[in-house]
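Example record for the data management plan.
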Amino acid sequence: MVEIKEVLTKKDRKKFFKFPLTLYKGVKNSCPQLISDEKDEFDENVNGAFKYADAKMFLAIKGGKVVGRVAAILNKAYNEKQNIKELRFSRIDFIDDHEVSGALIGAVKAWAKELGMTRLVGPIGFSDLDKQGMLVDGFDEMNLYLTVYNFPYYVEHMERLGMEKIVDWVEYRIKTPEKGDERADELCEKILKRFDLKIIKTNGANSAKDIVIKALKDIWNEAYAPLYGVVEINEKQIEREFNMIKMIWKDDNVAAIEKDGELIAYGFVGPNLSRALSKCNGRLLPFGIFHLLWDINHSDAVDCYSIGIKKEYKDRGINFIMVNGMMNNLRKNGIKYIYTGPMLEHNKKIRSQWEQYDPELYRRRRCFGLDIE
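Corresponding structural encoding:
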């Protein structure tokens, strides 16, 4: 028999965040998330999303052992934006036992009914800054810091519970071109001159703080607003995101363009930390920090965090300038691969910006939905 226990104590919170480390022990592609980051995500004093969202966490206990977990998130801002009544679920992990997965979803469903919600959706987090989707293809690939790994049997469990696909996110792996393209460089210069644009050069994370904050506040919020599951991020979330970006900052990993002193486009990539996180096993101390620092300075791959352009400058070749410039920088610094992170399957514009580099679609994630009777 499975017992569902709401997480209310410090001891149970510890069990909730440590459970994946036990479940995926020895699974080389799982790339565990940092426990400290996960704790912060569900800390009302740290995560600004709690200004518009509520959350509960549940553990599944069987035979006296933790055998599963799930978080439920009420994103009031998105429900109001879309005029819907949905409850999200996230951080769902469980052993290969249908009684366990059924009990976890049952706990989320019970809270949804209590709240008057009519649908469950997930896995999806607080905002687009959070982890999204359940892995449905690409299980033999190393997970990213930006994403969450899960066993293949998760998908069958969701389908057995009556869940259906809402959206998919796809991920590309791109090999950095070995040589530059002079014609592309010349075209970029022509576009810059035509629209009187200027590429911004940064000198360290602290000097670029205003750029990052403006990028997220003014451009990210505008550019990502139409996408599935997205709500406007607030100042507290932006400040937290900058503090995370600052830890892995490299000037050559940033693309920023301005016109008349106003930021109109940006792009962020960061060193791929998958190897380091695997060795950290969820903890920075005592030795995890050294693995992380090594990958920050020596990784031969980068993860793409986000790209955004103000709407009045879309379809003017700005994406092309940023991606081409970043490719030049990455090649100069010995970066061999770029991992895009999840992109909505139907977002053809954002996917098309990588087409000239012969991208490999190597992984797919899914958000499921279930109507509540």
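Summary line stored alongside the record: DSSP finds twelve helices and 14 strands in the chain.
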